[in-house]
Each structure stands twice: as structure tokens, then as C-alpha cells.
Fold this protein.
Amino acid sequence: MGMTISEKILSRHAGLDAVHPGMLINAKVDIAHGNDITAPIAIDAFRKAGGKKVFDRTRVVLIPDHFSPNKDIDSAEQCKMMRDFAHEQELIHYYEVGEAGVEHALLPEKGIVVPGDLTVGADSHTCTYGALGAFSTGVGSTDLAAAMMTGELWFKVPETMKLVYHGRLNPWVGGKDLILYTIGLIGVDGAIYRAMEFTGETISELTMADRFTMANMAIEAGGKAGIFIPDAVTEAYVQGRALRPYTFHTSDPDAVYHSVIDIDVAKIEPQVSFPHLPSNARGISAVGDVKIDQSVIGSCTNGRIEDLRIAAGVLKGRRIAPGYRLIVIPATPVVYRQAMQEGLFDIFLDAGGVISPPTCGPCLGGYMGILAQGERCVSTTNRNFVGRMGHKGSEVYLAGPAVAAATAVLGRLAGPDQLQ
Amino acid sequence: MKFKGKIWKFGDNIDTDAIIPARYLNIWDPRGLAAHCMEDASPEFAKLVKPGDIIVGGENFGCGSSREHAPIAIKAAGVACVVARSFARIFYRNSFNMGLPIFESRELWEKVQEGEEIEVDADAGFIRAGAALLPIQQVPPFMQELIADGGLMNHIARKGL
């Protein structure tokens, strides 16, 4: 019987010839990583269990990105605990403010995660690296502690859902719109306990940035992983970047799937997910007149250079609406410098925006753009739960960078086509 | 494992931001987290919850972030166990890893009212709610072992890995 790409990666890391959905396996992980929120609990658990040395100092990665540059004393203490541990353990992948960025943009950019890997991260959006053809999944701090200690972890082999995208993309439609549409279609628990395999002729034409965005949000449908079959686009991205040898796996033609869903992308226009679930997605022509106070363009979903270029393309020569706030957050120092050199910062500043250093910032209500009661934000981030970005009486609308930028100009939910 | 307690009932898609909002994630002391448990879903919960109480959730309980602060806050608040129609995967795993007992029941949610007392008998595989006797899904032996050892790290320490 054939196997899916996910089953192949899991079986190889478990040292088994084959695995099938439902099996509980023990598998070796290539990378285990945490951030300033999740690592302190993992470090504490590591020490309490008698941990002295991490299993491999080149494969445990710690990134301060959520509340850093530190927003307050408690955050500073958490970051310090992580920093001290990284130095004590002589980790080679610890990045200080100035070289750190949003973890899920930074790890692929630096070639730390490569195709064929099995990686775990104490952050739910670890599923992002599925874009590279890796099986990567979010775990909690205790799992991270166990992985840091032993280099292994228990996994339940998931069933796989195959999502097949056909047809040509409409203008201003990108990876974010495809994934919001998909989550709207299957629901926030539509892929619970499963891997989501994204395939089809449309996918083969997508950039890596679009693929990262889609894999990132597999968790918003409850997915254990989002995964793409690596191809020439993947090869072009990892070449010269990958720090380790990599393997391209594919799914066998006779692999068994939980289900197969066909999606005609010609029907998809730019999407907006209304409060308070990512699945409340609708096309931009159906959003109605919704006044918005703030746009956030950034995060592990849409803080890459391609995203900032799209936003700048919409904002060039325009001003944001009076009283509006536009917050732009390049995901990594490399993206930051590139945006600056390409002149994108001039466009954002001329439009009336503010540019933040790389951080997760307001995505999870951390800082750098928190909402007051009754305020509304359109954000390129990945969650719009109650209170996600501040007061529980505020609202978050999820969209891609084109809609977030056009909305900033008009002060109400809008797509770029509505600008003069 | 047997639990008998008063229930707190919640709806579908109770996310980890509702269980413990991100604004408190600069805390990692369990008691500090417990003081804000369920704050955005039920502002009175942390004040009124009693040791041994049981949470009953709908579909996809614990969806959202991987923050282990969520099951830590629930456990530290004194909640004995959580029974939901379904759980988000990371929350499910985190709960076992840190020794918070959780159970899936497709039927319980419709049959119970907030404040009612129920009995969860995981060994016998049923929940008693009033006159109803409802089956609960069997927990795989490996995961029963995790709970019995008090979580994944104790399990690893016990096995001497």
C-alpha cells in the first residue's frame, strides 16, 4: 500500500518501513524549537526531569520573538531565562534581538529547517515549514522539554486530507486568500487530528511565500500539519540556504487519504475572515460597509518581503484615512533591510504608517498595536478570536496584505480594486 | 481514574486565548495563570471554581495556540478533568503530557446543565449524568501511563531516559 508524504517522513524518522494512520510511534526529530513564551516552561520541565545537556546543541533552536524587544519586566525575565539557557547549552541557533525575527519566517530563511525534516516547535504555527515538504507540527512546552532532552517524541500518525486546487488565480488573490477560503469551506475543526496536503496545478505555480502562508494556517482548521510536495520552486528556495542535506519526498499514487477536496480557484476573490473565527470567511465583494481603525501587516503569516511589496504596491502615492493607524512589521531583519533598500519604507511612511522591528507584536495581543474596546483591526495575522489583539470587546478581521493596505486608505474594509 | 464533581459548561471552539489570554503569558507560575483561567469566556470562573469541579466543552475545545499555559491554568484552578465533544489536537496532547485528564464524549454536552454533578469513571468507561449512563472513548494504554506517571517528563524520568 502506498504512503502519503507525511507517512513517509514519519516512518523514516521512526525507523519503520511503513506507518499507517492511528499508529502511536516514537520518532527522532530534526529540529526542536521554542520561543520566549513557551521555552521558559520547557526549560523548567527539562531541569525538573534531571536534564543536563540538550540532545544536540545544533538542533535545539530558541527565538525571542513574541514579547521582544522586551515589552515589560516579566517579559524581560522570561527572555533572560531563555538567553541564559541558550548560552549555558551553547546552542548555535539562538538569535538575539537585532538578528532574531518571527520564528516561522526566520527558521526557513536561515535554512535551519529543510525538506524531509520532522520538526516540532512549541508554537502552534510550526506547521508553516510544511511548505518546504517537511512534516512539522506545533507542540506544547512539555513536548519541547522531552524533545530537547531525548531528541525523540511520541506521535500519533494522522490521516491525510488532500486539497486539490485547480484553475487560475484572480487578481489580488494569493496564498492567504486560498487558505482563508479553504478554512471557510471546511471549518475550524475541518481537519482536526489530520495532515492537510495541498496539491494541484494552481499550487505548483505558487511562490514559497504563498505556500508558507497556507501551511501556517493549517492549524486554524485543526490540522496537525500542512504539507506541500517539494518541487522546483522549493529547490530554488532551499538551494544555498539549507544548512543540512535534504530529501524531497512525494506521495505515492496509491496512497490512502481520509478525503479529497477539489477547489476551483477561479471562484475565489480576495477574502476577509470576520470576527471571531478564521472560518468566517467571505469574498471582498460581500463584506458590506465595515469601518476599521487599524491595519496590521506582518506576522508569520504575511510578514515576508513578497507581502510587503504587495502592500506597498497598493499604498504607493496614497495616504491612509484620517485617524487611521497602519502598522507594518517586517518578519525578519533580512526582510526589514530588503524592504528598506527597495524603498518600501518610504512608501509606508509617506502613507502615514509606522514600521516596527521584527516581532510577533500585536498578533496575539502582546504589544505594538493593542486594540481598545470597540475598535476594529484588519490584520494579515492568522487568528481573530475574542480578545486576540486586545480588549475582548475589540474585533479582528483577517485578510491578505492587499486588502489590509486598501482598507487603510479607505478606512473601511475594501479591496485594491475599490481604490481610484 | 474516577471523578465526581459539579460541572462548568462551555460551548464550541473554546480557544486557548479564552482559556488564558495572551496578555498573561508573561506569567508562568501555575497559580498566577489559574487566577485568570477562562477569563474571556467566563469572567467569574477563576473566582468561583472549586477543587474537583469538571469542565464540559463542545467541539474543538482548546483550539488555537500551543500554549501549555492553558491546561496548566485549568489544572492549577483545581479542575479535576475536562470532558468535551472533541478537542483540538495540541491541547489534547498537552493535557496528557502534563497530567490533566481529558475525555471525549459525543453525547454528554446535550444531556447536562451548568452546575449539575456528574461522575466520570474512566476505568469502567462511562459517565453518569443524572439517570443517563454515557460511554467515554477509551484512552490508549500509553496515554493512561502518561497520566498515571503524572505527565510526560515524570514518565521519561521514571523510565530513566
